[in-house]
Amino acid sequence: MYKSKHLMKRSIITTQDGSSSISIENWGETYHSIFGAVQEAVHVYIKNGLLLINKPSLNILEMGFGTGLNFCLTYKEALLRNLEIQYTAVEGFPLTENEFLSLNYFSYFPDFSFEEIHRLTWDETHQLTKNISLHKNYSLFENLSLPHDHYDLIYFDVFGYNYQPELWSETILQNMFHCLKSDGILVTYASKGVVNRTLKSIGFTVKKMPGPPGKREMTIAIKP
Hints:
alpha/beta, 8-stranded mixed sheet, 3-stranded antiparallel sheet, 6 helices
């Protein structure tokens, strides 16, 4: 297992929409919005990400697999819309079994084995249905090697700039730009000025959008 240069003491919390998230106690940071983990993920990554791309087949990259919530919501939407999804998720600090079993996402996905997603082996591609595959990449972001012009959509769901600014560095965001196809989208809950300026300097077209409950704005960045 990788060791973080930051000590992360994690605990399970319940957010305001009733869904679980994880708190890093010594940071005061959470994996999802305290105003609602599921409603934030749906607003940011599904409504302002997945549903903006009018393609029957998509390559999706998630930076920060975390609780697996974004993948589960994407899986559910893909089944509803008969989409073909090749999903790659990057994570350097996976949840423990006790942590993922303590999340209440089972009730949100009754026909889906949430537990099994976390038990899947890392660094292998798993064909979950005829049209949906998942590859969990066990890696630190700074060590990541990604194919150029490959992804249609990036869920950039890493810890906030105030806690880990290195995850929002020009180097990492440049890597995101190169691995996206033309007209590909990077979507994130963040809307910090320094982040948007970096995205623009790299070459992204940046759009601020209304944020989920509890947050004024979020960001969509498009590769021309």
